[in-house]
Batch of 3 targets.
Target 1
Amino acid sequence: PRAVVSLDDSVLLTDLASQRTQRIDCGRAIATARFRKDGRQWIAASRAEKLLSIYDTESSRVVVPLPLAAR
């Protein structure tokens, strides 16, 4: 099991079994972050930029940025 916590412009990814934590710089203010059900990817939401970014859990790289059409 893993946990993800949003901190301003970065997130902390924690492997709960090994208790290893990694800080990932997202380059933008992150309002919330959540894992997909299978844990292979996580989603970070930026309200200020109206953007959802999907990250690969193993590489911590953006798979796809999804701009939102919300006002």
Target 2
Amino acid sequence: IGRRALTRRLGRLVLGVLTAERHLKQLKLPTMPSECEKTAARAEKENSDYLADQLAFWEAETVDRIRRRRK
């Protein structure tokens, strides 16, 4: 992997972690944000897409909870 590709991957990882932490705080899941960074780093090291899958789940849960609160 070249330097630019590595920089892009790292940028996506950081953005994913920050976005995940925001959703997890809104969902009031206090343990998850602290574990998110470690899990993301492990997934990146293993070249898996775990964070993307979890991020989609957390985002959907956040949107659903906001929608239900407005009713």
Target 3
Amino acid sequence: FELFELFRSDADQNFEALGQAIAAGDLPTIEGTAHSLKSALANIGAAEVSAFCLELERAGRERNTAYDFSE
């Protein structure tokens, strides 16, 4: 329960930052924010969403402007 509360306290802010970074095409911020979310989501057992964040992180790291971030 405590782990989930820790996640929840940062999740809204991180998801908001990720959405803004995607809208702005800010690949370094996408990479960093997706990385943080990926780890936090894995810790609470949200494997599918964590895997999606891994995809976003990789696209950001590779500066892949062809990645469809709208999925």
